C-alpha cells in the first residue's frame, strides 16, 4: 500500500511542506532480471539479458542508453506492465515480481499510461485517492498541480491535452499516491525548454522531499546528469556501467560507455602501444604520441585511445600530444572548440580549450591530456585496458 499517512493533516494537501526520510523498505533491487519477448509461443527477441541493480532508498537513478537497448522494457517490468521472463524485483525485502501493477507501490509516469477519457484531469488524479477514501483528495490534487504548474489543466479532458501537458499529467499521476518507487519514462521530453527546467527542478525537490526511490529513463544527458544520483548506462539489454555521474564520466568501464556519455563526444582514435609498464606510451597517426596511466597494455598491440575534448590541454610542439593543423575554431563564449587534422588519422579530433585561446584556422598546434585521462580500450571488444 502506498503511504498515504504522509498527507498533511492540516491541509490534506500532497505533503508539500513535509519531509520524509527515505525508509529502508524503499530500496529497489533487480536481480538477474530478464525479458524475452515471445510471439505465438516462440522467443522472438531477448530485450533484457540479466540486470543486477541495487537502488538505495530515496536514490534517483537515470537509465541511459541508445534506442532499443531495453530501457522501457525494464521500467515496464518494474511497473508490472510487462511479464518477467527471469530474475526478481524487490522493494525492500518484498518481491513484487508477481504482483499486479496496483499492488506494487510503484508510481508509473508513462505518457501513454491510460487516463479515463470521460473524466477531467482533476477527477482522473483524485479517482484512486477517493476510491481509497483518502481525506482531502481534492486539496492534495490542487497542491500537486500547483507544484507541477498544471493547475489550468485540471478542468480539461485527456483528449484535449498537448503532449507536453500529457507529460505533466503523467508525472502528477505517478506522484499523487506517494508510492515507494517511481518509474518515469522520458518524463520531460515534450516540455518546452523553460517548462522543462522548472518541472525538472520541481521533480527533484519532490523526489528529495518524499524520498521516492526513482528510476528515470531519459535520452537527454544533461537531464540525466542534473537529476541523477547514479547513472545506469545500458546497451543491448545489459547494464554496461552503474555509477555516479563522475565515476561514469571519469572512469568509463568500456569504450561504449566512454563514447555514449559526454558532450562533446570523446575522441576515439587507433594507436599502437610502444611501451607499457608503470604507464603506457601510444603512437598515434604519423608521429603523434600520447601517454596513458594504463599499466597492462601489450607492447605492439593496436588499441583504441580515448581522450575527451574537455580534458585537452595545449601541448608544446616537442611534447607528447596530438599534433596537427587546426581546421575549424569555434568560439562558443564559455570555451573554444578546435577541430584538428592529425596527420595519419582518418578523421579529425576535437579539443575544448579555454575561451579566447589564441588559435586560428590553419595554425599548427598540439594538445594532450593528463595520463589518467587518456583511456585505452581493447580494439576487438572495447573493454578498458587499465
Ligand atoms: N512486444 C515486443 N515484441 C518483440 N520485441 C519487442 C517488443 N517490445 C519491444 N521489443 C524490442 O525490444 C527491444 C527493447 O525495446 P525497448 O522499448 O525496451 O527499448 P528502449 O531502450 O526503451 O528504446 P527507446 O529509447 O527507443 O524507447 C527493441 O529492440 C524492441 O524492438
TrEMBL record:
The keyword Transport applies. The keyword Transport applies. Keywords: ATP-binding, Nucleotide-binding, Transport. One of its GO terms (molecular function) is ABC-type transporter activity. Residues 1-25 are annotated as: Disordered. SMART domains: AAA. GO terms for cellular component: ATP-binding cassette (ABC) transporter complex, substrate-binding subunit-containing. It comes from the Bacteria. Residues 28-261 form the ABC transporter domain. Gene3D superfamilies: 2.40.50.100, Nucleic acid-binding proteins, P-loop containing nucleotide triphosphate hydrolases. This is ABC transporter ATP-binding protein.
